[in-house]
Every structure is written in structure tokens, then in C-alpha cells.
Design goal:
Blueprint: E1 10-12, H1 20-33, E2 38-42, H2 47-56, E3 66-71, E4 78-79, E5 85-86, H3 92-100, E6 105-107, H4 127-136, H5 143-156, E7 164-168, E8 173-177, H6 184-187, E9 189-197, H7 208-216, H8 221-228
Parallel strand pairs: 1-9, 2-3, 2-7, 3-6
Antiparallel strand pairs: 4-5, 7-8, 8-9
Helix pairs in contact: 1-2
Length: 241
Amino acid sequence: MARQFKIGVTHFLQEGIENLRDCLRIAFESAITHNIRKIVIFTARGQGVRMAIEDFLPLEQYRSIGLVAVTFPVGKRFTDANRNPLIVEIAEPERALLAQYNVPIVRAHLPFDPIKGIYKERGVLGQDLSLVGNALSLFGGSMSLCVQSAVMACDAGVVEQGQHVIAMTSDTAIVVQAAPTERLLCDLVIREILCKPAILSIGRRENANQLALELEDAPPQLEKAGENSGSPMLEEGEASK
């Protein structure tokens, strides 16, 4: 048996919904490659699930793949750029479409979100797991939502414990061995990162053009120095288009 394998990772040059169609394509193609029969989509308004149903499920090779929609809980507050209240939920037309195609909707408290108390000075409940979410954000703002969606789907019973699924948002997709919240740190495994943003344009307001120039201007001798330092150089997977 081979002791290693190489697989390409697609890196987007910005975060956000502009990557949704490509992210879905990568998720469906990878599901066939890995014989995975369920894709868990974290969605705020249902757009990603609608696109999956209308544009991908009709294709012969994808008809056996099941979908799960995971979304924000009731009561979660959102505001626009001017701090005005904003309603973020799956609208009725999308709900009807999901029901028609037997796509379950999981709507519950996000495991990494702290529980707010009445008195802020007395601490925040559930803060330990929020640190896990912060650590996952090092890979991009959506990585935490991918992991939480797999956990929430497992908690809800629509994904079996230990089942391998693809969990995705609009710009990130991973192959993950699912686990419920109780077993999160023991049993959940991120097997592969299929795609993710390389530039954190939303979460950290990075500028893609500026970073591209900085990376292009990096001294070529750095690679040679790494080879002679005694430290192994990580080989970057070729980005698939």
C-alpha cells in the first residue's frame, strides 16, 4: 500500500460568495472521487443549497449524493454596515425547494459560539470552544463554519458519527469525519482541505493585489536556504482550476 498521496487544493484569491459555484463543483467532484455520499452545506439564506439542487443534482453522476443544509440558529443577531438590524434566514421559497428534494435543515446553536450571560463582567459561558473557532479561522473565516456544520449535522442525526462527508460554505470545502459535539475533540478528523481562500479579504481585510505583489517579490534564495537548513520544506499542492 502506498504511504503517501498528493492531491491538489484550489486556493481562491478572495473570500466570499463569488466562489460559491466553484466551491460546489469541487465538492461534488471530490464526493465522486472519494465515494462520499453526503455534502453538508452551511448556508445563511439557502442560495448554495438551491444552486446544488438546480445545477448539480440533475447531472447523472451526482444523483446519488445527498445534501444537508445547516444554518444559523433562531435569535442570532446580524447588522449591516451601518449597524442596522438585518434578517438573515432561509426564505420560504428556498425552504419549500429543500423540502421537495428531502434536504433536511439543521438550525441550532453553533458549538463554537459562547453563551452570553446577563452580566458581562462575570465571564462568558462556553468560551473554551470559542477558542477552537478562533484557531480554525487561521485557515480562513469559513473553516470554523465547515467544522461546526459537520458537528451540528451529526448532533441532529442526519449524519452518522464517524461518517465521512464533505462540509462546505461559499468559499471553503473539506473532507471530514463527522462527530457530535460531545466527541468533537476526540473523534472529528479533517481529512482533506479541498478549497479555501488564500487571501482573507473579508475576515482580515487583506488586499489580494498587494499580497500578490509581496509574494512575487520574495527573494528566490529563500527556497534554497530552506533546502539547506535541515528543515523539511512543505510541498504545496498544485491548484486545480
